[in-house]
Amino acid sequence: MQLFSRFIHTSFLQIILSSAIAALSANILYTLGIGQHRSVIILGTLMILIPGAYFVNAIREFTQNNYYSGLALMLSGVSTCLSISVGVLAMISILPFAEQLSGVFSTPSTSWLEVLTQTVMAGVGTAAFSVLYRVPKKYFFDLGTLGAGSWLLYLLIWNNTHHEVLAILFPALLVTITSRFLAHYRRCPATVFLASSMFPLIPGMSFYRAIYFLLIGNENLGLSFLRACFLASFTIAIAVSLTQQIPSRYFVLGKKK
Hints:
Blueprint: H1 11-31, H2 38-46, H3 52-63, H4 67-94, H5 112-129, H6 140-161, H7 164-185, H8 190-197, H9 204-215, H10 219-244
Helix pairs in contact: 1-2, 1-4, 3-4, 3-10, 4-9, 5-6, 6-7, 7-8, 7-10, 9-10
């Protein structure tokens, strides 16, 4: 996408071309026998383009009565997902060996080995994702640990309760509260930790899947993903809002000399 920005100055065209190339690469790799699930490869390559943060921030703005800001963020997220979906659909339609995405592509892990693997990968992914936000390297370990911890808590709660709201709420509270503690002791804005370490919980993929399936005519699956995206985003926004109501003095455990 950065390569296209030198020649194309319209963001939605950049996203369409980038997602089309991602779909092309994923289908070529799958055809060559690299990877077992075509849909998972495509989703993995699209990960950095998914605008999940737009949706979460839009919900947060709505809860704080900032309707214009919330609407602007919501429209930005929808337009980005539409652009991604158009790029993927166009490339899949052109390629004779490609197939449309269908069904649910991922399920929460239940075995301890899978839980451990996903926890480690969530930490690594969070640290890697923070590079996009140009976070200083000295915070990578904090962000990776917090991202891994939030995803581990999500898996533990989900596997024992199968309650999506609770599984999102408590990890989101962990991230928001810990971010405020780290902001004090690391002497930097809490946003540095909050924006990046929330990465494993952001429902960006659900948002993209909802738009994609609505475009190809699978309304039931599209609405199901849209509902999951809204619940997760609203829950994260509530966790952020609740933590913001706590006075700053409660996040200072002692005075630094």
